[in-house]
Amino acid sequence: MTTSEPASTPAPPAPQRSKGFVIGRVAGAPVIVTRSWFLAALVLTILFVPAIEARAPGLGAGVYLAAFVFVLLLFGSVFLHEVAHALVARARGQNVTELAVTLWGGHTAYTGGLGRPLDGFLVAVVGPLTNLVLAAGFGLAYQASPVLNLPTVLLGLAAVSNAFVGAFNLLPGLPLDGGQILESLVWAVTGRRTAGTIAAGWVGRVVAVGVLLWALVVPWVQGTTPNLTTVLWSALIGAFLWAGAGAAISNGRRREAVEGLSAQGLAAPVLVLPLGSTVADAVSARAAAGGRAEASRLVVVGHGDVPLAVVDDDAVAAVPPQAQEATTVDSVAVPFVRGSEVPPALAGTELLDHLARRSGGARLVPVVDDGRVTGVLDLADVARAIRAT
Q1: Is 259 a catalytic site residue?
Q2: TM segments (predicted)?
Q3: Which of 227, 259, 291 is the last residue of a domain?
Q4: Which helix (H) or strand (E) covers residue 349, if one does?
Q5: Are 220 and 72 in a shared domain?
Q6: How confident is the model over 87-112, as pLDDT tens digits?
């Protein structure tokens, strides 16, 4: 059971939804049962048949129904785990995009960017705690049952499975919830979320190897032969954890590179023209600027040097020389979106979040320092810089 937080972009596309069947909504997000869940339910039903038979003999073919009921009970607990993630994520200001029940359990996806270590800690820890609370509840009900019948057996198995799910998810490595907890703790100590992500990713790789070693080494220490089924399942889970940990490390490094992107570093320099200037004035300004004019943007400013628009060079080139003196520069300029201006020091995810919220779909936004326009930021350049990280 994991939570995932897609990275912000200047103009983020609609979140990609998992494929499957939508069975409801929680925290404003769809609850999706993926097609892979049906395979998981079938395999787990078969695997749990021996455990049910050993504790409730004499069921005959009904043991398969009992095993399937237990699987539904188990995935119901997984669903409550994801609900807890979703509710806390929404309470911490995130936009929950989906809750999915999958082959590997489930995940909760959200956007918005965790602003503080405490946010990540609370979103992550509540899932395993939900399973531990369920384990305690099922355990108390099991102890209170006066007879050992099938419902009691199911209660006991539910208690054990929830305790395992809760404890396993608290292991301190991404992509597990415990990994996000570790990420938040390192983030709080170092002040750098990226350091937490990379550290938790490497610990996640250790956990992945440990899962396989557990299946191989523990039987050897006990003087028995490793169970082939256990080894295969451990290898599959280990591979899943290794891949998730590797993705976390890559995302952490990418986020670190993104943090190095600033509005000042990405912006093109500007040549300023007052409102009412002509196309001829624009041409003269470029000629006077010499070589640096090629990389510069012509910006039209109003009263108080407020940036109003950016000149379209193609439109300027289309004005005949004889008409340049009579054509005002604002007729060949594209207005800036009001409120889209960016401080030059804005960088990293804060810059991307600002552009996503304030650019209004425009490609060009002004960079303004202490009321003076110092550059023009092209969102296409920002996107290229992100792809290069």
Answers
A1: no
A2: 26-49, 61-80, 121-142, 148-171, 202-222, 228-249
A3: 259
A4: helix 348-358
A5: yes
A6: 999 999 999 999 999 988 889 998 87
Please state whether beta strands 307-311 and 333-335 pair in parallel, antiparallel, or not at all (unpaired).
antiparallel
121 and 224 belong to one structural domain: yes
Q: What is the pLDDT of residue 292?
A: 59
- Tally the domains of the chain: 2
Task: Output the pTM of the full model.
Answer: 0.75
Q: What number of CA atoms fall less than 13 Å from residue 210's CA on the CB side? A: 10
Q: Taking the CB of residue 191, how many other CB atoms lie within 10 A of it?
A: 10
Q: Calculate ∠ Cα 369-370-375, nearest 5°.
A: 20
Spatial separation of the C-alpha atoms in residues 53 and 66, rounded to whole Å: 9
5, 82, 183, 341: which is the annotated catalytic residue? 82
State the pLDDT at residue 33: 94
Please write the tens of the pLDDT for every residue from 45-57: 998 999 899 988 8
**Over pLDDT 90: what percentage of the chain?**
68
Per-residue pLDDT reduced to its tens digit, 283-316: 998 888 775 556 689 999 998 889 999 999 899 9
Cα distances from 59 to residues 63, 96, 145, 157, 295, in angstroms, run 5, 43, 20, 17, 80
Tokens of residue 284, six digits: 């003269």
Average pLDDT over residues 134-148: 94
Interhelix angle 177-190/117-144, nearest 10 degrees: 140
DSSP 6-67: PPP-SSPPPPPPPSEEEEEEETTEEEEEEHHHHHHHHHHHHHHHHHHHHHSTT-TTHHHHHH
d(CA 11, CA 19): 24
In sign, the C-alpha dihedral spanning 160, 163, 165, 171 is negative
Residue 373 DSSP SS3: strand
Which of 211, 236, 259 delimits the end of a domain?
259
177 known member of a binding site = yes
| Parallel/antiparallel/unpaired status of strands 105-111 and 20-26 | unpaired
85 is in an annotated binding site: yes
Which tokens hold the place of 155? Answer: 């209660």
Asked if 335 and 363 sit in the same domain, the reply is yes
Q: Same structural domain for residues 236 and 336? A: no
User: pLDDT category, 3, cuts 50, 70, 90?
Assistant: low
